[in-house]
Amino acid sequence: MLLSDYEWSRNPRGLHVAQAFQSPPDYQRYIQPKMGWVKLLAAGIEYADDVQVFRDNNITPIVRLYLGRYGAGPFDQRLQRIVDTFVSAGVKWFEFYNEPNVDVEWSLGFDPSWEDTVNIISPMMDNWMNFADYVASKGCYPGFIALAESAVRRYASVLWMDTFLNYIADNHYERFRTLLANGMYCCTHPLVANHFYQEVPGRGPLSTRPPEAQVGTEGGWHFEYPYDPISQAADPGRTVYGGTALTPYGDPNGLVAMGRMFNERCGSIFGSQAIPVVGTEGGIIPFLGGGTFQLDNRYPPYTERSQAEATVAMFEWLAREAPPWAFGVCMWKEDEFWIPHATMAIEHLIQTPVVYKQVPAIEVMGSGLPTTQTVVPFGPGPIHGVPDFHMILLGPGVESDWFFDTAQAYWNRFRPMVTTHEELIQFIPNSKSLAVTVIATPDTLDLMELQIAERYVNVLYDPIVADDRNRIAELFNRRVRLDLRFG
Fold first, then answer.
1. Which of 50, 96, 122, 137 reaches 20 to 30 Å from 129, CA-CA?
2. Helix 344-351 and helix 304-320: axis angle, to 10°?
3. Is the predicted pLDDT of residue 410 greater than 90, yes or no?
4. Hey, what domains does the chain have and what are their CATH numbers?
């Protein structure tokens, strides 16, 4: 199956309904701001008659089987009948279970943990597989379970997702690989918070426009947290998996962070290449009235007006700059964006044309799939033409601020990932290739070559000696002039 084979609007804009049992919804709340997704909560079949209206307006429905505190309950015949009704209505995208890493999804008094295999991981994965097989048998798309984004150990999204996938690899390897190859997707709940910003034109990647100066339809936006320049400068090497002392249990709080993790883990374990991801709840939470919101003081706060600009920018970034597997986000939720009146974000979306996503014809599973008898090769794969990824690796004593000050034009042109942690290389799946530009002092360059060039045989190794700053600056500027990413 190709990534481009999935049937949807190609419009990343989405909105979550206010609640279950609210049929018919106010269709204009989705049509006017030109939504491409609608997330429906189906406690029964109450939204089935609304599906055609959405589809007639190029709005793709996602149906979550809404079960309340269902825990790891089974996919039973009643739920099968609900799925059948929505399939007959034209729905292809389905979701089962929701945020199992928080206690509100379990019976009162139950405190969930990813370490509880008997009561949580095993029954939930076994039952989800039954749901996914059934949905796929109807020619539709089963969504893998969305997690609440948390970095607290017991509820950490990264630890839960790893536990899920490792259990499946041990118990349902071939079944899961078949699902990946035949229409499965991943649901996420991206808690964007204020982890975004817009550069000041001509001032470089670490500059930030103040909220009152942001413009959603102009360039320079960053939604790649935790891989953006501000995050990397403040905590070099931070990834969705953690990788730093400040993030021992991961950092999932970005627009595409958990989708990236799911794709990378599935690539390394099951041999996939690009699995669609839809944020079925999330986005930049709106608020009315004055004041600002600033959860993370490394990033600018946002106001009601700048939240509107950033919402337009978020959807355009998903269409133009996000990975090809990032299909969109359903904003949480309808009533918060429309009641008591339309927010500025809705008004901006109404006034702004949609930017549609051009989905490439990438084979979802790639070639040379691993089997249970095949060991997945360690590290990145061979380079065919141009490397898929490019990393700037700063050796001991070379600071990220030094790099951004010295090679600003180079970074603006090529936008590599900048890190001080060479162990991140192992997270690149063998289905992808990598080039690493190492900047190291003369006394550590040999050690860096030993750690990288000799360990990861497929990596393009591009060493630079960090001695004279003026020479380094000219080297990078020359690469920009000649449009040469590597020396």
1. 50
2. 40
3. yes
4. 3-351 (3.20.20), 389-481 (3.40.50)
